[in-house]
Amino acid sequence: MFSRRELLAMSAAGAAMVSSGAQGATFGNPDEPPQGAINTKNASSLSDPGPQNPALAKQFPSAQTPPATDVGGLPMNWASFNNAPRRIQNGGWARQVTVVDFAISKEISGVNMRLSAGGIRELHWHQAAEWAIMTYGGCRITVLDVQGRPYVADLKAGDLWYFPPGAPHSLQGLGPDGCEFVICFDDGHANEFNTLLVTDWLAHTPPEVLSKNFGVPAETFGKIPLHNLWIFQGTVPGDLAADRAAVARHAEAPPYPFVYSLGSSAPLKESAAGSIRIADSSNFKVATTVAAALVTMPPGAVREMHWHPNADEWQYYISGQARMTVFDTGPNARTTDFSAGDIGYVPRNLGHYVENVGDTDVQFVGVFRAPRYEEVSLSNWLAHTPPRLVAQHLNIDEKLIAQWPDTSPGVMPKT
């Protein structure tokens, strides 16, 4: 049994604990114990007297001083082609980020490649599907589908191509300065440096078998390369129509093109706050395993809070300076900074937003291992939930809830 004095003392102590907790658990600073620089009372709490790499730290301000709303320890969701080693050959180069380098990226691996004018990525095929977006210059692609129907096309910046698994193809830079592009494979383990190459196969096939297979003397193959070419310098491609005529040879045309002009397509959503363009199997028929969204945002704009229910999102930042926060159960929340050439990753169903924190447009492409693009907008969900129910959750006036966007705007302007 407790005396009245003891009970009063215990009540006072409990009230003090509640009061102390409330100081940390405030709007914009919800964590207990409180996190973030906003909670520090002396300078030593923020200082870092140890070894420094200022150039690197400057690129990641959200890691140096995270928002007070960040909590927990989500896996690293940042990688970059900027620090990936380039494999350079006469004719071009490539660098890659796979799940070996980027543990969270289990569904997609990425390759950044440059081909000079006339530079050739030799004839080859993959065990995974290949999706790509052109970021510079012009490229000629060739591909053969499983029905033996050939396809040849020229692409420019903003265009896509898609090759199903096993479809043999080639890539070649056009004049005047070749091309650069980013490839995504629908398998995080897929490796650009370990592909099925035509030169390797022929070099490791007995000459008498080659003779029987192609119906010509074995001596025909006496000068084939004994080591693969991978990327090599060739001549600049000639007239596109001539190449198309040359490959026809009694073959039909494929029913759907292997390329799509995403950059010049009609936006799914567009306003003064930015635009979102979509390419999936609904408009890019051949792309049965990969969908994509090209997002452009002016300074200060925010890619609205949302999530994707059908696939992880692999992001490539084409231009600008961005900041993204990802939310998971726990709660866990992590804010990360991105620049041109960087890669972001968001597991399926995790809430996130992207904010333009620079003074130029941000453009990035989100790639999904799925046949169609799917998105759930937080504001759209709450705007289509009974207002009284939402108000009881968030302590917000129903009249203010009625002002929330109810059309999934995609991008919201700077306020």
Which overall shape is indicated by the principal axes computed on the Cα atoms?
A: elongated
The CATH topology of the largest domain turns out to be Jelly Rolls
CATH superfamily of the largest domain: Jelly Rolls
Q: What's the helix count?
A: 9
Helical amount: 10-25%
Provide an overview of this structure.
The N and C termini lie far apart (59 Å). The strands form three sheets. Strands 2, 3, 4, 5, 6, 7, 8, 9, 10, 11, 12 and 13 form a twelve-stranded antiparallel β-sheet that branches. The protein has two domains: 79-259, Sandwich (Jelly Rolls); 264-412, Sandwich (Jelly Rolls). By secondary structure, the protein is an alpha+beta fold. Mean pLDDT is 93; it is low at 4-22. The radius of gyration is 27 Å and the shape is elongated. 17% of the residues lie in helices and 34% in strands.
Keywords:
415 residues, alpha+beta, Jelly Rolls, 2 domains, 25 strands, elongated
List the helices and strands and how they pair.
Elements lengths: L3 H21 L29 H5 L2 H4 L13 E3 L6 E3 L2 E6 L11 E7 L3 E7 L4 E15 L5 E7 L2 E5 L5 E5 L5 E7 L10 E2 H6 L3 H8 L16 E3 L6 H9 L10 E3 L7 E3 L2 E6 L11 E7 L4 E6 L5 E7 L1 E8 L3 E8 L2 E5 L4 E6 L5 E7 L7 E2 H6 L3 H8 L3 H4 L9 E2 L3
Antiparallel strand pairs: 1-21, 2-3, 3-4, 4-10, 5-9, 5-11, 5-12, 6-7, 6-8, 6-9, 6-10, 8-13, 14-15, 15-16, 16-23, 17-22, 17-24, 17-25, 18-21, 18-23, 19-20, 19-22
